[in-house]
Amino acid sequence: MEKTFRKDYLDLNMFRGLGEDPAYHLPTLTDRPRAWPMNRWAEAPRDLGFNDFTNCQWKGLRLLKDPATQSAYHNLLWEIRPRTIIELGIYSGASLVWFRDITKLLGIDCNVIGVDKNLGRSQIPESERDHISLLEGDCSVPSSLEPLRDMIKHPLLVIDDAHCNTFNVMAWAVAHLLERGDYFIIEDMIPYWERYSPKLLAEYLGSFQGVLEMDMIYANTCPQLDRGVFRRSDVEQ
Question: Minimal CA–CA distance to 18: which of 135, 120, 139?
Fold first, then answer.
């Protein structure tokens, strides 16, 4: 069995900044009024006039998953029916609430765990905490994620949204969390790494040969998941 995934990786996330302020605000239109006059209906702009990604929200919390990504996750959740979803990096916590609500609607008995080194960023009200757990952990120190081993049920979906020390965290998850058929997803970062550090990116991904495989259905669905959807293909003996 290939064991090269146990190497130490440079943090490729250093090549791009972290996420923005997690607070959700209504879109601000700077080039047109929100209230458009009906007698000028035919002249109204056809584009949105605002960034639809940064203004996606769920129950008033800023949701950093655009509609195409939400659709892809909907299909993935229905297929694998995870018992546990771990999201690394919580921002406002909207994704945790969204995953909890969607799995509940799909009839999936699932617990959602959010991991962040600063849980104070969570804006989840107490009334929305059912089936959601928060764990203080620092992805720059993968051993701080150790409590997750006693919190999970399979099938398992792990999502890297922390953008910190990703490949060492992925190696830790492969070694300690993932069973055959479980998923590890890297959101957002693959296109940036390919631009700024393509050789290291290919080397790091290639080191997981024999333990992970890319799911070409979901890895081609949208820019946020572009070539970043990986499934545990085998378990070391």
Answer: 139
Q: How many domains does the chain have?
A: 1
Main-chain dihedrals φ then ψ at residue 114, nearest 5 degrees: -105, 130
CATH number at 108 reads 3.40.50.150
In a domain, 3, yes or no: no
Using DSSP's 3-state secondary structure scheme, residue 98 falls into helix
User: Does any domain span residue 13?
Assistant: no
* Domain span holding position 110: 64-232
Which residue is listed with tokens 């609607």? Answer: 105
pLDDT per residue, tens digit, the chain (237 aa), is 457 778 888 887 665 444 444 566 777 788 888 888 878 878 878 776 666 666 788 998 888 898 899 999 999 999 999 999 999 999 889 999 999 999 999 999 999 999 999 998 899 999 999 999 999 999 999 999 999 999 999 999 999 999 999 999 999 999 999 999 999 999 999 988 988 888 999 999 999 999 999 999 999 889 999 999 999 997 654
**Distance, CA of 159 to CA of 187 (rounded, Å):** 7
Residue 26 placed within a domain: no
Q: Which residues, other chains included, contact 165 with Cβ-Cβ below 8 Å and sequence gap of 6+?
A: 9, 11, 13, 139, 140, 142
CA distance 19 to 66: 15
Tell me, yes or no, whether 34 lies in a domain.
no
The Cβ of residue 195 has, within 10 Å, a number of other Cβ atoms equal to: 11
